[in-house]
Amino acid sequence: MARFMGALAMALAAESAAAAASWRRLRSTAPNSTTALAADAKGPSAPCQCEASNAAWKACARTTPKCIFIDLGAADGNSFHTFLNNGFGPVAGCPGGGAWEAYLVEANPRFNAPLQEIVARFPGQVQADKSTAAFYCEGTTTFYLDTKNHQQNYWGSSLSSKHPDTQKSGLESVNVHMMNLNRMLYEHAIPGDWVMVKMDIEGAEFDVLPCLAKAPAASLIDRLYMEEHAPSWSLTGGTKESIDQAKAELKKRGVDIPAYFSQTF
């Protein structure tokens, strides 16, 4: 585990340097929202309310620890391949003698086929929630597609109709399922695991993170790689202040949240 964490720190430093050298996405410069709503309040466009826990959820019964890689905004699986290629630390150093599981969550149906191919390659180790948006509750909602940024792997697809890339794409949309990160953690992770969550969800982090900070299962996360976008893309009126408060709470509970930029393409 120590070897895994040391190499993980080196990989993260290299990625942070690359991020600093990269031009920042123009879409990240949308104006900040000034409307502050409680994270568990039903915002004007929020499809449901924050569900931090539920007695009906079934706790993970597994006893052997392993690495758990949860990829929110998985695209075609590019970050999963980074994980497999030791980009987040040597997989062989995972607890349980290099054991791991991966959960890939992606709303854009364009990536259904490549994600299914990954599932077929790693039966029993990879679960892909296709045409599914990461959120803090379950249900269905509208997801807006980026159809313009071909070379960047359509990186601007979003739950938000305010996202400049979805607007440039004429607000073309599809209906998708929503998954609850809090439930996924509770049902698929145990305290002995090394749990990594990669979150690149185009503004929905301002909705998900305040709810996550209230969830008992959040303590299962060891490291959160989150790309932060514009608060105005939040569905609940999230703000920079609210997400910073959520990050501070998660850090107090032992979650490491380093600076992160996802090389989507």
Give me the secondary-structure topology.
Layout: H1 2-21, E1 67-72, H2 78-84, H3 95-98, E2 100-106, H4 112-121, E3 126-130, E4 132-135, E5 139-144, H5 164-168, E6 173-180, H6 181-188, E7 194-199, H7 205-212, E8 223-226, H8 240-252
Helix pairs in contact: 7-8
Write a concise synopsis of the structure shown:
By secondary structure, the protein is α/β, with parallel strands linked by helices.
What does this structure look like?
This protein is an alpha/beta fold. Helices cover 28% and strands 17% of the residues. The protein is built from 8 helices and 8 strands, in the order αβααβαβββαβαβαβα. The chain has helices spanning 2-21, 78-84, 95-98, 112-121, 164-168, 181-188, 205-212, 240-252, and strands at residues 67-72, 100-106, 126-130, 132-135, 139-144, 173-180, 194-199, 223-226. Strands 3-2-1-7-8 form a 5-stranded parallel beta sheet. A 3-stranded mixed beta sheet has the order 4-6-5. α7 packs parallel to α8. The two termini are 30 Å apart. 45% of the residues are buried.
Features:
265 residues, alpha/beta, five-stranded parallel β-sheet, three-stranded mixed β-sheet, 8 helices, 8 strands, 17% strand
